Amino acid sequence: MRNNGYIDGFIQITYYDHNITSEENNDDVELIWIGLLRMTLEYLENGSGETSYFMNDQTWKMERINTKPENQILFSIRNKQGKFAVAEQMFLKELLKSGEEFTKFISELSQPNSITVLEPVIMKIKKLVY
Length: 130
Fold this sequence. Notes:
Blueprint: E1 2-3, E2 6-9, E3 14-15, E4 18-19, E5 27-28, H1 29-46, E6 48-51, E7 60-65, E8 72-77, E9 83-87, H2 88-109, H3 118-129
Antiparallel strand pairs: 1-2, 2-5, 3-4, 6-7, 7-8, 8-9
Helix pairs in contact: 1-2, 1-3, 2-3
């Protein structure tokens, strides 16, 4: 729902039937995507990333867990019970795909918009993931 210049909603992140994020993480969806993708880029560059780029004082964190045969991501949200370990490559590829879909969708709604700052971030993530 567009409200006072922003779209109120949430990003649903589910891993094997476990909700990592849900409607309780409701906020400005554009800000959530900006924060999530910037955090992902920081994670790829440094092995961990954190964001609090939200209106409702959320803090999300990603940390690399070095495991074989594939690294995992430990994903956590401050004030939420539990941390979630997810397969790194699968998670990053799905996140990138969804981020691109949202960026395209929001760009079709209006130009200019805050989401245009994500295009260079998405390109950097793509180079690091693929």
